[in-house]
Design goal:
Blueprint (H helix, E strand, L loop, with lengths): L1 H25 L4 H18 L3 H16 L8
Length: about 80
């Protein structure tokens, strides 16, 4: 049973990561900001391999920031 819930969480995180990547690509922001957001998404993707629940929380925060128009400073 626990394996099923873990699989469902994995599928949800994968779908949200795909959505997040699409949203970041479509943003009308300076390239430095887009690169910073892309690096954050890559970090979440890497974290999902070791800590799926933590990665889901990080992704939730990132998506909330995108929803609210809070973008990091570009390099």
């Amino acid at each position: 049973m626990e394996r099923d819930s873990q699989l469902e969480l994995y599928q949800a995180v994968a779908a949200r990561l795909k959505e997040a990547h699409t949203r970041v690509r479509a943003l009308q922001v300076p390239e430095g900001v887009r690169m910073t957001l892309s690096r954050k998404l890559l970090a979440v993707t890497a974290a999902a391999k070791h800590d799926l629940e933590g990665a889901a929380r990080r992704l939730d925060r990132l998506m909330k920031d995108l929803d609210e128009g809070r973008f990091p400073e570009g390099d």
